[in-house]
């Protein structure tokens, strides 16, 4: 015996509520004879009579009463399930796993996630911080759905879309002679003691600093290589040296330091969205659309909160 169809349960519940085949048929917008036949079909599937047709108005049998409440509950759950499926099909319901660099976590990503939650409150966002290399591996193995990383990305199965420019900025202590500059020409840093973000902790940023020094033919003295951003900022605040960090880290608002934009040509590795090219998930693409719309607003807010960035606010990219 197969499970009764939901349609048959709906017919039965309507008849049970009306206690009249004619009124039930009107509610269901079908003729009375086919409705009666469908109820008989349900009774045959269950192997028991559900309705006592000898009485007026009709009455439910013991089996009918036992089925009635459970059938209504089943129909309610089915409607919820169908509604959930429809909402998921438009990206309004589901779960999204996001991987992100620390620069994104401390910068644009909370802004994007907040905008997404306002628009899609029933989508659960799971966030994990990881390197670009790890995110690529996690995307390929389907452990995350969207990454926020830096290129280059040599993985043909992924689509990469720039989100915002996030250029290097000079980080100096608050009474450093360069602290009040609107922009700093990189050549002026040639003899400044420098604290580097260690290569093992941030290979892309380390590579960008090396590239910047090569572009401007400078060799600043390196006093330390540090794995943690907060330690770097503490050393800069103490006057031990300056640092070159992605602009996003200005959001950490460390007392005693000032981020000053750099002038001229800079290494260009924007923060970018990454996802599997074959992924047609509405939830994924809804998030990508929200991110593209929220990024320019984030940069506008960043410029208002930190006026020194207004003349060199990084650009946003749109999908």
UniProtKB/TrEMBL annotation:
InterPro entries named among the record's database cross-references: LysR_HTH_N, LysR_subst-bd, WH-like_DNA-bd_sf, WH_DNA-bd_sf
One term of GO molecular function: DNA-binding transcription factor activity
SUPFAM superfamilies listed in its UniProt record: Periplasmic binding protein-like II, Winged helix' DNA-binding domain
A Pfam family annotated for this UniProt entry: HTH_1
Keywords, alphabetical: Activator, DNA-binding, Transcription, Transcription regulation
Role description: Required for the induction the katG gene for catalase. Involved in the response to hydrogen peroxide.
Gene Ontology CC entries for this record: protein-DNA complex
Family, per entry: Belongs to the LysR transcriptional regulatory family.
UniProt cross-references to Gene3D superfamilies, sorted A to Z: Periplasmic binding protein-like II, Winged helix-like DNA-binding domain superfamily/Winged helix DNA-binding domain
Domain (HTH lysR-type) ranges: 4-61
Keyword set includes Flavoprotein: no
Protein's UniProt name: Probable hydrogen peroxide-inducible genes activator
